[in-house]
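Journal club prep — side note

Before the paper discussion, L.F. wants everyone to see what a predicted structure for a comparable chain looks like in token form. Sequence:
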Amino acid sequence: MGDPVWVLVMFDLPVKSRGQRKAANDYREMLYEAGFSQVQFSVYAKYLINATGMRSLLPALRGHVPPEGEVRILRLTDEQWAGMYRYYGRGEVPPESTPQQMVLITDEEIAIRAALDPAGRSRGKKK
């Protein structure tokens, strides 16, 4: 299976012509659609709970690189990510924490939860 990892995508994409800007924006959009978050200009990160998930990401990341674009992909363990130094201005700030795992629920569970108020009572008409 594999340990959790952070995937870091760093890139320099040409943006001199209208077509190049469109290709660069399309690449950024593809990263967002794949679940990446921007951590700095031209640097995006995604947390994977399973390192083998890299296999499914690489074809899209490689296949969408615009002509004359340069992309670097780095895989980091949780420990490596947590050990980074991060500064905002002259102050040090902690790195982003490990995201919570996504919980998937069925449509039926969504309907049941929607029918309840925060106290767990039915929102139906009073008798």
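L.F.'s comment for the group: The chain is about 30% helix and 25% strand. Keep this in mind when we get to the figures.
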